[in-house]
């Protein structure tokens, strides 16, 4: 046998296996492919072990024995992993914690946006607005990555949904879609906040410690930072209502509309995030009855 030929064989085959099983773009840096998982790794490791054992220990005459030994070893290991994966019996792949993590980080992102907005005295309007926009991009990229992972986990868990004991709660798929919607909606807090900063009238209202609007925003901030989520009936009409002080002096109609839009956005996010928490907590997963 030719050791250089073996080296070339390993280089070409492992490179091809790695290339065709690797996700494209950003997902290539986020772990294994959701389609191939550990398959390419097993292929490369098995091939390297067989070639190196034959080259260094057994010689060409032991090629078939080593190959059969490794294939049987892999199949036994995979079979044992399949058995252990379903013990204890439960649909563990349907865990909603990945979506819950996104909701938690959405609350933190909104808190960060509002914190910058309420502390706008510390910088010039352009600096504050630029900080909000930069933070929005940072948070949105992070949320997109987490959502991609949550979606992949769901798809992986739903592969055997034809079997009753492996079915994933269909409610989880809906919540994953709703989380995607709220990721975009939450980013508008920073977008509208940057417009408020550039509007002198709006900015004065937001920075006025005695203004009704600032007190309402602080109330929202305290609620969204509260870990004990309010799980009241979403149809309850006694929910918090944020509104603009229409009798305030020195503020134009356009500025009032901008503040009204911002407060309505906060109210909508408060209701929707609370509903997401409630629905995710009710998602069935784990031990099956």
UniProtKB/TrEMBL annotation:
The chain crosses the membrane at residues 41-59, 71-92. Keywords: Membrane, Transmembrane, Transmembrane helix. This is Uncharacterized protein.
């Amino acid at each position: 046998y030719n050791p250089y030929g073996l080296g070339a064989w390993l280089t070409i085959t492992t490179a091809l296996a790695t290339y065709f099983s690797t996700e494209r773009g950003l997902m290539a840096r986020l772990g294994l492919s959701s389609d191939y998982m550990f398959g390419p790794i097993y292929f490369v490791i098995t091939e390297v072990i067989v070639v190196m054992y034959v080259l260094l220990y057994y010689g060409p005459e032991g090629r078939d024995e080593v190959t059969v030994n490794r294939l049987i070893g892999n199949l036994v290991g995979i079979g044992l992993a399949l058995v252990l994966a379903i013990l204890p019996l439960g649909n563990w792949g349907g865990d909603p914690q990945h979506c819950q993590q996104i909701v938690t980080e959405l609350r933190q992102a909104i808190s960060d946006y509002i914190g910058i907005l309420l502390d706008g005295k510390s910088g010039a309007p352009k600096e504050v607005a630029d900080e909000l926009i930069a933070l929005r991009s940072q948070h949105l990229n992070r949320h997109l990555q987490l959502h991609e992972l949550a979606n992949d986990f769901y798809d992986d868990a739903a592969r055997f949904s034809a079997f009753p004991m492996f079915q994933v709660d269909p409610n989880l798929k809906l919540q994953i879609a709703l989380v995607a919607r709220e990721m975009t909606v939450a980013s508008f807090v920073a977008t509208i906040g940057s417009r408020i900063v550039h509007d002198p009238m709006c900015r004065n209202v937001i920075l006025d410690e005695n203004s009704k609007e600032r007190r309402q925003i602080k109330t929202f901030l305290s609620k969204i930072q509260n870990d004990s989520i309010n799980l009241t009936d979403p149809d309850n009409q006694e929910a918090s209502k944020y509104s603009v002080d229409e009798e305030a002096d020195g503020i134009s109609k356009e500025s009032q509309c901008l503040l009204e839009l911002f407060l309505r956005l906060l109210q909508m996010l408060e209701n929707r995030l609370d509903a997401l928490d409630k629905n995710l907590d009710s998602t069935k997963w784990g031990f099956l009855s």
